[in-house]
Design goal:
The complex is a heterodimer of chains A (324) and B (376).
Chain A lengths: L1 E4 H15 L3 E5 L15 H5 L4 E3 L4 H13 L3 E5 L10 H8 L2 H4 L9 E6 L14 H5 L5 E4 L3 H13 L4 E6 L6 E4 L12 E4 L4 E5 L3 H14 L4 E5 L2 E3 L4 H10 L2 E8 L4 H12 L9 E5 L10 H4 L3 H13 L1
Parallel strand pairs in A: 2-3, 2-4, 4-5, 5-7, 6-7, 10-11, 10-13, 13-14
Antiparallel strand pairs in A: 1-8, 6-12, 9-11
Helix pairs in contact in A: 1-7, 3-4, 8-12
Chain B lengths: L49 H26 L13 H10 L5 E3 L5 H6 L4 H9 L8 H4 L10 H16 L5 E6 L6 H12 L4 E7 L2 E2 L2 E2 L11 H5 L3 E5 L3 H16 L5 E6 L18 H8 L3 H12 L4 H23 L8 H4 L7 H18 L1
Parallel strand pairs in B: 1-2, 2-3, 3-7, 6-7
Antiparallel strand pairs in B: 4-5
Helix pairs in contact in B: 1-2, 1-11, 1-12, 2-9, 4-12, 6-7
Classes of the chains: A alpha/beta (324), B alpha/beta (376).
Chain lengths: 324, 376
């Protein structure tokens, strides 16, 4: 076992992927000499050279569009989008090209591209640096979308995403980059596109992913102090969704709450609520409830604590579900 | 350099020979005048055998025959739409025949002539416009990527592919096809920045056919397109896009430059879309018939025919044989289109991912069960 921050676990996972497969090429803004603005690629250019760790021009469409061409040539590009809010210049390439090329070519052109995006708020940043755009990508057929919440998953899921023959949008919870945990570098990892029960409980099922998993676990702990037993599931994969453990849980607890930072309307929570309602209708004691960001422009950082779901907001909605 | 000479008498068999004059064109590389006269250019020598000249004529004539047949099929309701290449045959055949076996082409949606040179069966292009698939050919086997409809995206793909060639240290190049309208797209400009920065072995081949659907070139650029290349830091050249020999020579030179590690080139093939943008378009709303008549005098096929005829490199028997081959091609296209089976309905579920998801597998199963419900 090794103690790693989430950021260092990503760095270690990237290094391992590059050692395992010479076709893995990293591209992004400031990822070479600087090691990335969050240092996720720290030291990799020095060890693997400028042909495999490419400091690109400042052009996100260029980063993703050239990754498409590299993939056609047999490479496995791993691209870094510096911040969540900067992905939209590349949105056309991701949605129009990356997502569709496998289907259009009837499988002749696989697109094993990993698009890493640090996402979410809570770091006191200026605008466009704190967003949660995952639903746009989860809504796009042809992409797979995952979000990691802890160092061990960061290490393993990143390697699995890179090895995946399909394009994967890989969301990293930037405010958790500095969280530490033990990582077993020899473990057999859980399959990538699966969710996981991270805390058992009997009274309510609480779903979260990315940065909100920690918040959900804190809420579950606080609820236990009040005598409520909450099961927490880390979704891990947002597209495809793995709701089998969720349904098993909800059939037992009868109550379900989904948490995410993204705006509530048409967020992942809406889809999950619809599916859980359909599959667990006769077990539900309350409607599936959502805790998310408000449907507003991401506020200036002095207000982000009010905007982001926190332990109290989660517990407030848990109370509503319990009292229904 | 060589401007089109003014006030030259036209000679048979150029159609429209009655028109005594052609308006001057801008300076461009030319090896074959509209009248079919072979001229030299100091920078672009071209050695072609008579066989090669006849083969180029055959290419030009056959892709036009294909195009005519496809337009007819659309008019008869057999294709949803067709994007005609009429008038751009020389630009596409010249560029396509300049490519080596290992070079990779990234077309837009009108490059049927390039597809022809890569050995793509016309029916595999037709099937896209008929609505049977999203591009029927194998892009890796043919070294001809699928068509790109959202303008400009393919320039980045070509550049990325070229970066792969660099990493493989392969003796190959990529070529991105684009139109005059595409030069306004951000992604095209990003591609040129990337290509220049990394000295990527890529050629940007722009067919300036004067219109982006209805919008004339003046709305896309205040400077001649080929001059933009200088701003990105690589050579730009304007070639007579209706002169298959000049296009061949210029593209060969650009590809050689790319392969030897000297970086990208921007080629502006100055040409004219003689037909509509697509079969859904009505060019009479935005351009004058006179303009088309002028360009007919620069027809890319007629000028090579004139050259072959006058020089004695080909006679009536050759042209008749090509015509007959064209008729056979048209029959192949027509019967192949009419006989084309509709895709299996489940096809749409089958290639979304390399690794199918449970969600789509479940939708596929539900779809089949739903369909079977009707058959009972």
């Amino acid at each position: 076992m090794t103690t790693l921050t989430l950021g260092k676990a990503l760095n270690t996972g990237l290094r391992k992927a590059m050692e395992d497969d010479p076709k893995v090429v990293l591209m992004g803004e400031d990822i070479g000499k600087l090691g990335g603005v969050f240092r996720i690629t720290d030291g990799l250019q020095k060890d693997f050279g400028e042909a495999r760790v490419v400091d690109t021009p400042l052009a996100e469409a260029g980063i993703v569009g050239t990754a498409v061409g590299l993939a056609m040539r047999g490479y496995r590009p791993v691209v870094e989008i510096q911040f969540d809010g900067f992905v939209f210049p590349a949105y056309n390439q991701i949605v129009t090209q990356v997502a569709k090329i496998h289907a259009r070519s009837r499988g002749r052109l696989p697109m094993p591209i990993t698009i890493r995006i640090p996402f979410g708020g809570g770091i006191g940043a200026v605008e466009h640096h704190s967003e949660s755009p995952e639903a746009y990508f989860a809504h796009t057929t042809g992409l797979k979308v995952v979000a990691v919440s802890n160092p061990a998953d960061a290490y393993w899921m990143l390697q699995q995403a890179i090895a995946c023959p399909d394009p994967v949008v890989f969301f990293e919870p930037k405010r958790r980059y500095w969280d530490k945990a033990e990582v077993d570098l020899e473990a057999t990892p859980q399959p990538l596109f699966t969710s996981r029960v991270v805390r058992s409980g009997d009274d309510l099922t609480l779903l979260a992913y990315g940065p909100m998993v920690k918040t959900a676990l804190q809420a579950a702990q606080a609820a236990e102090d009040e005598g409520r037993s909450i099961e927490v599931i880390d979704l891990r994969t947002l597209s495809p969704l793995d709701l089998t453990p969720v349904e098993e849980s909800v059939r037992r607890t009868g109550r379900c709450v989904v948490v995410h930072e993204a705006q509530t309307t048409l967020g992942l929570g809406a889809e999950i609520a619809a599916r859980v309602t359909e599959s667990c209708f006769h077990s539900l004691e309350a409607p599936v409830l959502r805790v998310g960001g408000y449907d507003v422009t991401y506020p200036p950082s002095k207000l982000e604590e009010e905007y982001l779901p926190d332990l109290d907001r989660v517990l407030h909605v848990v109370d509503r579900a319990m009292e229904f | 350099m060589t401007a089109v000479p003014e006030a030259q008498e036209m000679v048979d068999p150029v159609p429209g020979a009655a028109a005594p004059h052609l308006p001057a064109q801008p300076e461009l590389v030319q090896l074959l005048t509209p009248e079919g006269e072979r001229v030299e250019h100091p920078e672009y020598a071209l050695d072609v055998t008579d066989d090669e000249l006849r083969a180029l004529y055959r290419d030009l004539a056959l892709v036009r025959r294909w195009d005519v047949e496809a337009t007819a099929l659309q008019r008869q309701g057999e294709l949803g739409i067709w994007a005609s290449l009429l008038g751009q045959e020389a630009a596409q055949i010249g560029a396509g025949r300049a490519l080596g076996d290992d070079d990779m082409a990234f077309p837009t949606y009108r490059e049927h002539g390039v597809a022809w040179t890569r050995g793509v069966d016309p029916l595999q292009v037709i099937s896209l416009f008929r609505g049977n698939d999203l591009g029927g050919w194998d892009p890796l086997a043919t070294k001809f990527n699928l068509y790109t409809v959202v303008i400009g995206a393919q320039c980045l793909h070509a550049t990325g592919y070229a970066m792969g060639i660099q990493r493989d240290t392969a003796d190959a190049a990529a070529i991105a096809f684009l139109g005059d309208g595409a030069t306004s797209q951000g992604e095209v400009n990003e591609a040129m920045i990337w290509a220049a920065t990394f000295d990527a072995p890529v050629v940007f081949f722009c067919q300036n056919n004067q219109y982006a659907i209805s919008v004339p070139i003046e709305r896309q650029s205040k400077v001649p397109l080929f001059r933009r290349a200088a701003g990105f830091g690589f050579p730009g050249v304007r070639v007579d896009g209706n002169d298959v020999l000049a296009v061949l020579a210029v593209t060969r030179a650009a590809l050689a430059r790319a392969r030897e590690g000297s970086g990208p080139t921007f080629i502006e093939a100055f040409t004219y879309r003689m037909g509509a943008h697509t079969t859904s378009d009505d060019p009479t709303r935005y351009r004058l018939a006179d303009e088309l008549e002028e360009w007919k005098l620069r027809d890319p096929i007629a000028r090579l025919k004139a050259h072959l005829s006058r020089s004695g490199k080909a006679g009536p028997e050759f042209f008749a044989a090509v015509d007959a081959e064209g008729d056979e091609l048209a029959k192949h296209i027509r019967s192949g289109t009419l006989d084309m089976p509709d895709p299996a309905p489940t096809e749409m579920f089958d290639h979304v991912y390399a690794e199918q998801t449970d969600e789509i597998a479940a939708q596929r199963a539900a779809f089949l069960a739903y369909q079977e419900g009707f058959e009972k």
